[in-house]
Structure formats: C-alpha cells, structure tokens
UniProtKB/TrEMBL annotation:
Keyword Hydrolase: no
InterPro entries: ArsR-like_HTH (IPR011991), HTH_ArsR_DNA-bd_dom (IPR001845), WH-like_DNA-bd_sf (IPR036388), WH_DNA-bd_sf (IPR036390)
Top-rank taxon, per record: Bacteria
Name of the molecule in the record: DNA-binding transcriptional ArsR family regulator
Sorted UniProt keywords: DNA-binding
Gene Ontology MF terms: DNA binding
CDD domains attached to this UniProt entry: HTH_ARSR
Domain HTH arsR-type: 3-103
Annotated source species: Amycolatopsis thermophila
C-alpha cells in the first residue's frame, strides 16, 4: 500500500460508514451539537432501532462517540477521525497531481 501510515481496516470502517447518506447526516448533526439517540431518531423516517444501528456503525468507525447519561445515550462527533480520512484523501490527491505533472513534463519534452 502506498499510503502506509493508515491502518487499512480502520480506513475501510470509516469510508464504509460514510458511504451512507443517513450516517453522513448523523455525523454532521453530532459534530455541530451532541444529541441523544432518541433526538436523532425523531429526525428520520425510520425506526429507533434503525437509527441505533446507524450510530453503532459510526461508533465502530470512531466517527462518533456514545456516552451514557442516565437513561439516554448521547452521541457526539469525533473530528480527529474525519481529519485522518481527509489526510488520506489529500495523500491520494498528491499522488495524482504528481502523475499529472509527470505526464505534462513528458508531453512538453516531446513538443520541444
């Protein structure tokens, strides 16, 4: 693997979790403000159990953190994991920019 500083399983969990629109929406909401799973469940046209499953996927990817407060489970976002995913995408972008520059250099040499 070219980008070796990342654990493949961890990155797989992060991008799998972010591949779903509802989970991305949950991440956005709980990054702005901590919410209980009950509050989140009221926002979506799905069962409480379905929202719990989405939150569990996000928690396994460490994109959110669940914390018990009395009878409720509060959920808040984990921006450090999103930064890690962004760094990985930045590394891929740099690889492609380097390749594009190499192609451009070859084409310039041929024209000269």
């Amino acid at each position: 693997m070219v980008v070796s500083q990342f654990d493949d399983a961890e990155i797989d969990r992060i991008f799998h979790a972010l591949a779903d629109a509802t989970r991305r929406d949950i991440v956005t909401r709980v990054l702005r403000q901590e919410e209980s799973i009950s509050q989140l469940a009221r926002r979506y046209d799905m069962s409480f159990a379905a929202v719990q499953k989405h939150v569990a996927v996000l928690a396994r990817a460490s994109l959110v953190v669940k914390q018990r407060s009395g009878r409720e489970q509060l959920v808040h976002g984990n921006p450090e994991v999103l930064r890690k995913a962004a760094r990985l995408l930045d590394e891929y972008e740099q690889i492609w920019r380097h390749r594009a520059q190499a192609i451009e250099d070859i084409l310039s040499e041929e024209d000269a």
